[in-house]
Amino acid sequence: MADDPILNFCLKKKSAGDSLVFSGELTAQRLDRLEKELPGILRNSSGPLVFSLEGLTRLDTAGALFLNRTANKLRAEGRTCSWQGLDANFSRLLELAEPQWDETEKDKPSPSSFAAVERLGEAVCEAGATLVSLLSFFGVFLCRAAGVVCNPRRLRATSLVFHVEQSGVGAVPIVALLTFLIGLVVAYMGARQLQMFGAQIFAVNLLEVTVLREMAVLITSIVVAGRSGSAFTAQIGAMQANEEIAALISMGLDPHDLLVLPRVLALILSLPLLVFLADIMALAGGAVAVWYTLDIDINTFISQLYSVAKMKNFLAGMLKTPFFALAIGLIGCFNGFKVSGSAESVGFMTTRAVVQSIFSVILLNAVFAIFFTAIRM
Amino acid sequence: MDDETAIVSLRGVCNRFGAQTIHENLDLDVRRGEIIGLIGASGAGKSVLLRTIIGLNRQVGGSVRVMGLDMDKAAEKEREAVRRRWGMLFQDGALFSSLSVGENIAFPLREFTSLSAPLRRDIARLKLSLVGLPASAYDKFPGELSGGMRKRAGLARALVLDPALLFLDEPTAGLDPLAAGALDRLILELRKNLDLTVCMATHDLDSLYTVCDRVAVLAEKRIFAVDAISGLLRSDYPWIREYFLGARGRAAATRTGGG
Q1: What is the pTM assigned to this prediction?
Q2: d(CA A221, CA A271)
Q3: Fewer C-beta within 10 Å: chain B N or C terminus?
Q4: Residue B4 domain boundaries
């Protein structure tokens, strides 16, 4: 504030000893100039020093701390320091603001010269530990699932339906749109290339194998991982941070039964249906593309599709979906349980869940490709 | 009451959430240098009132004046100057989780002053010891602290610029009796040393008896009564009688020698 008196300070040299005279307000807001200029001023003085505070209108703890620090430093150099013009308030403050902690800084452990190697090793160990605990999470899930098979009444039907709606029905618009566009692009690009050989009609064959086998499944799984896998982590994580999971356990309820099973089962049910929808939409997109670029009408497209379409491509695509759903659901829930305490860790684990589940979907897809080749499917 | 003695002055404040009215025509004056306690049943709107005063919640009607400044009409620059002269302790400390405790406390210094890093660190350590936290808490992150420690660290951050006005939302809730007592003494000590005005929403009867000069009772959507506890005891409003003369109220009165 403009009308506040600012801080003034000067060194007065007297025969009895030097004194440092302050006036105005000595507060944290005004301390910066003093901090910068005082070392220079002190170099000009020697012998006993008096801090004269008579003119101060206001002193706060930061100011008092600074005075104490300065006095302590001078005393350590063997000079005597004393106060002048202390009223009761100022002396209480100075007493309050006495630095009591150990002045020697604790040395932080210096980074080792092999820091990069160390980090790599830690990352590998952590990844291994995560994998092991994910596997044990999977094991618990299997046990609970087996329990539900033996005793279907243990299944939370309401919760299951809710999550099918959330992660299945809710994902329909975006999955439909995205796969339609993917089908469009695949057919268009294929048609352009094959046109050069006059083999444009084979764009339909290309579309069929790419979309049914790989693209529809992959795109749908990635969308679901981003939409539902992350939602699982965020929901369970928020419950974990809020001690709701602890409350469930304390009541003798099993969080796996209540939270994990309905979510993962919902994904296993809804992902195949979504992929089926994605297949149709992608083929429709492809039909539009070839009709537009090659002038192949819809009847020709369908008859060509009939002649080339093989059940095994469609099945190969659909066969993967429950496994992808299992991976996405498990990783989503698993990371939710790993949330600790703060709200910050919910966000961190959610990001991690998305990365891990997309990674595992692509990895599993590669494994399936090898497997299908081996069994000649 | 004129602006000379009232550091916070609310006139006709109304707060509504949807169809639910929280405050209706609420008046309150906080005198300079006093410690005022704000009590009321759960859900009576104590926190909302504090949030209204510090501008986190815009009232539907009425005016809020802090340090003589109408917080709704004043220029942004003036409001900022006022904001730097108050401190707020939120219920769970509201520490920034990405910063260590020390960095949290030094944060206002880093933003609003140009002090050197070592001096900032020393000031932060002083505040840390003032609120009774061990020096080892300095490098810890908020997630590693207990609720009571987070609260004290939040208080240290609220105090770091030596505010003229301090708002406390349930300062002793969740603290053990020793820590709560220490915090009460700390508030008294700080008031004595730093010309502090304190406005605290609390349910802690011990705190009310030991530190509060006056207590404002939030009931019937307004400040039903403001008085020293001895004055409130003469009230015949059932909730107030129940509050201070129930078993816990009487126990607190005997413990602290008040009432």
Answers
A1: 0.70
A2: 7
A3: N
A4: 1-85+204-259
